[in-house]
Amino acid sequence: MHQVQMSAGLPETVLDEESAEALEALANAEQSADLATSIALVCVRWPAMLAAWASLGDALDDPALKYATYRTGYHRGLDRLRANGWRGSGYVRWQHETNRGFLRSLAGLQATAALIGETQEAQRCALFLRQLDPDWTAQ
Description:
By secondary structure, this protein is mainly α. It has one domain (20-132). It is 59% helix and 0% strand. It contains 6 helices and no strands. The protein is globular, with a radius of gyration of 16 Å.
């Protein structure tokens, strides 16, 4: 006999953890003198590592490159969310460390979209952040 689990609210998705090797590589890259290049190498080695894409976006100065990098992290994040059971709605909260790379990418995309005049994109991203985590504040 199957039990039906009743939920009092929207489902919550928590992304799976990165490998220890990937986390160590990103931590080392974030301490490098050649920050953007070092983090980019982590992105190439672990292209699904959302924290690496967010960190690369943070390390770049050129708005077009920032935008493209954050957008990559955002789209890779949607793929990872779906692989972890997310079906287009529900919470993806900051309180879970493993969700932060995705949320940072989305927040970076929102900020960079606003910077380059993509107002509608910036508004969509801001709304999406609040839908994913109602307690969201710029981290």
